[in-house]
Amino acid sequence: MKKVFQLLLISAIALQISCSKDDEGTVTIQNEFTYDGKAYSLSQGILTDYGDVTNGSRDYDISLFSAGLTVPTEGDPVGTGNFVYLDLNSSSTTSFEPGTFTWDEFRGPNKIVDAGLAIDFDFATSTESDAIFIKDGTVTVQKEGNTYTITFTLTTTDNKAVTGYYKGELTNE
């Protein structure tokens, strides 16, 4: 009987250890960006086509928004919330081509030429001076069906890091 008890005890300990290791290794990635040590959620996004740039690329903007903002099919968002703006140039002149985009001051295939973010931005009363501007970074965009996966690592003009992740559909504008 003592051996059965020891076997059950050892089994229970082994099961507990194996479960806790699995739980510790699981990481859930959230739709959010992190700035200055704080995370801000993202719940929706739009992809805007600004057309051919005549240098072998096409100009697209991706804007990601938090809850609290309503994004109409035309015009500026309504409400107060957080957002990230990415001005990307696709390597295709006819459609958005996912890939890795790097910072550059000039438009070209797979380049980021402008970006910014805002926190608790009220589209009715806030101005551009309330935005936080980006000076460098990398954005990776993947697409499977209608689902985009966007990851970014950016640096603000005051040298603060911005990292983010968004997975979901983008409304075409």
Give the tally of β-strands.
12
Helix percentage: 10-25%
- Overall shape: it is globular
Mean pLDDT: 85
Largest sheet: 12 strands, mixed
- Poorly predicted segments: 1-22
Beta-strand fraction estimate? over 45%
Number of helices: 1
Cα separation of the termini: 72 Å
Q: Give the SSE string.
A: HEEEEEEEEEEEE
What class do helices, strands and sheet pairing give? Answer: mainly beta
Specify Rg, calculated over alpha carbons. 22 Å
Give the number of domains: 1
Looking at how many chains there are and whether they match, the oligomeric state comes to single chain
Features:
single chain; 173 residues; mainly beta; 12-stranded mixed beta sheet; disordered N terminus
Question: Concise description?
Answer:
The chain is mainly beta. It is built from one helix and twelve strands, in the order H-E-E-E-E-E-E-E-E-E-E-E-E. It has one domain (28-172).
Please provide a written account of the structure:
- The protein is mainly beta and 173 residues long.
- It has one domain (28-172).
- Helix content is 14%, strand content 52%.
- It is built from one helix and twelve strands; from the N terminus they run H-E-E-E-E-E-E-E-E-E-E-E-E.
- The protein has one helix at 2-25; strands spanning 32-35, 38-41, 44-52, 58-65, 69-70, 78-90, 99-103, 111-122, 132-144, 147-156, 161-168, 171-172.
- Strands 1, 2, 3, 4, 5, 6, 7, 8, 9, 10, 11 and 12 form a twelve-stranded mixed beta sheet that branches.
